[in-house]
Fold these 4 entries.
Entry 1:
Amino acid sequence: MAGSYPTEAGGQKSQSILIVEDDPGVTGFLEEMLQAAGFRVLVAPDGESAVETLKAEGSSVACIILDYETPGMHAIRALTCFRQINPDVKIILSSGYSEEDISPNVTASKIDGFIAKPYDLRAFLSQMAEILSAK
């Protein structure tokens, strides 16, 4: 069903998105949606794997979608590592909690966006486009 997704995000084949999510259902949904929008998708089930993936992929990763509650390395620690590896990478924090509930914990970590679960497809792609086009 890849053709049924809107492509507001304006994905480029050269842009890679790293999904950091331990739920296979959520990962599968995001992966399919982002590939349909034209992105190259990388997946990591936890913060440690994501850090290694970002080290290996370098600046080809345009954006990281980071689940707030991945196992192992906490999201705040992962954010710090991501910024050390690639200060320019865009980071979208994702959570079932509201942004207000978690924002005191991540304000200093400089995320580029927040998206609440469950995902609204159009809002998600629109936010991706906005974040990726920001300098």
Entry 2:
Amino acid sequence: MHQPCGVMAVALFVLLQPPVFASTPTSAAPLPAKTYSTTAIELFWPRATSISAVAGYEVVRDGLVPGVFDALSYYDEGLDPESSYQYAITTVDSGCARSETVEITVSTAASSIGATISSNDGSGIITGLHAIAYTSTAAELFWDCSQNPGLLYEIAIDCQVVAAIDGIRRVGD
């Protein structure tokens, strides 16, 4: 084919690219935590977003992976009293993309509940007394039920009576 003088044939190719989106899901930050007792804590995080559906949140405690959870919190129990634990939370989406890791250190409560068992007549009728510390200011006391009906139990904190009850447990702070 003959081309007129001074005219050049040019082929133009246009490369179309899809819009650029963030390739990783959002992180689980902020990461508040709640200490429930001397042996239990819970971590909370907001719902993450991703181009792909969020598959879950990978929880790591002190380098060990308890799992990937499809929830907005993680309850951890069986911990040691007065101990610190390092947690890392990473959002994972269905395409296996991972967010930046968010880290937090959480400490369990101190076991600082003590009890003195006494009875006015010296009979020692209170048995099985034990307590669960929920926070540094809240606890629950339990004891065995007496065989003597009609007894009132006085609960005192620092020698001040705070309750007189006829049951077998007391929750207070």
Entry 3:
Amino acid sequence: MVGNNKSIVLPFSSDKHPVQTMTSVCLHCNAHRSSHRRTWRRYTKNVLLTSLLEILPVSISTFFLKMREKFAQISIEHLRENKNLIRGGDMSTIQFPSAQALFIEGRKRGIRMVGHIYRGVPLNYYHATFPNNTTIRFFGFPRPPETRYKGEQWMDDKFILKKKLRASGIPVPTGACFTNFRTARRFFRTLTKPVVVKPRRGSRGNHTTTCIYTESDLYEAYTIAKQLCHFVILEEQISGAVYRGTVIGGKLVGVLAGEPPRVTGDGSHSIMQLIDKKNKDKNSLTADVTITPLLHHFLSRNRYSLNSVPLPDVIVDLSQKMGFRNGGISKECTNHVHPELIKLLEQSARIVDDPIIGFDFIIPDATKDPRDQRWGIIEANGSPFIHMHDDPQLGTHNNVARYVWDLWK
């Protein structure tokens, strides 16, 4: 089963098509396998904590969140005299891409950002000093104090997010959360296929499995998701491109479309041959499609193999991962989004009640009225990848970082 620590040897491995058989690096998240236990503890703890805060009075949950963040800040500030801590106001200490976008935009406005690195590991913690010498300290993104500790604490919980959106009439996939496989399997039998299985926390599609039709595939996907979180989500899969809609200050300011790597059949060439051609014809920004066990399993769930010969004009997806870094396409398309979709995403932001949100949603065509399509929001991120709007593979450059600093006007 994929996800164990054994190398996987496939019969179509060759020098031309090397099969990645990493025993230490997980194919489902590109992280070292030894980090799974640490991630599992963090995600599971966060789900339990968020669920508890949801039932406590707002005053108590807000006080707890403030104290937790204050403690984390004090812990880092106490390291200032430690020789293992490096502080600086340049790119060498600000290594997270979205923070770099904030750094560049802030510098234009006379805002000086300082980053921190401890024992060679960049910390997502910053100081920002404005031209009037006011200094703020923040993790990830600089949210104004009056906007804090509302939806920020639960938006990254996929189950709670969709529960709240669904209650307000915002389309989300039909799904539920489980800790027991037998219960999940019973629910699976009631869903329209295909189905998606994912950890309740996390981003970038890590340990997420799509295109699940059978109970054997369900068991494998459930096991993969369980490696990162005790709580696992099953939901119906929506067809279409995956979009990231970034809402800042209540306004939709960026929409990025992502498509997976795919090939189009011609009736005479195999999928492997079509991948060869795709890799040769792609532009320099797009990563090669690499033959991995993950690709093999993805194709098999969709009733294909690398030796399959797709019929003319049949499109075959090669991965569930989106964007040019995975061999697909990323396109900035903010100016082409249908007004009704803009309205619904901004309504969703009001429900979450946070000034900085990245909504991931799936829709067949974002330029058309969503009321005429099957679509849904699949998750939200309190630390959206705003740099992706700034440097898209296709489409117009969109400096979303400026809207973040505008929150402080």
Entry 4:
Amino acid sequence: MELDYKQIGVNIARRRKELHLKQVEVCETAELNDKYLSCIETARSIPSLEVFLRICQALDTTPDHLLIGAVPRSDYSELSFALLDKFQTLSPENQRLCLAFMDLLCDGFNDWAWPSEHLTFWEKRNYFLLCMIAGRNDFIFTLSPFDFN
């Protein structure tokens, strides 16, 4: 597998600019030569794993965030990465809700039931709303008021 070091450099520069940091500030935090980061960002130099991890730490990010698009993966589209970015911003409760809804979409709402007996009222309400949004009226009408207790 070959990495796209130009893309890694672009990702590093983008993250640095998002944080409104100058190259010299990142170099000081990561304990790098001030010219070295410029070479990494323009793919003139390839950082060691240790240097890469120090840059990640200085930019308050994870290695996977800086590697997005640098590892050739034909099975992931831009849409997949956009979905992942949005998913990571959700609370754990909303992540579970999102996964449940994706399960519903993937199996076409066949044989669907509450994913857990221990759901809160609000979680059940959210599933109910998702069914409405998805146009599953036949499922909604099978619910009883006791399903929300």
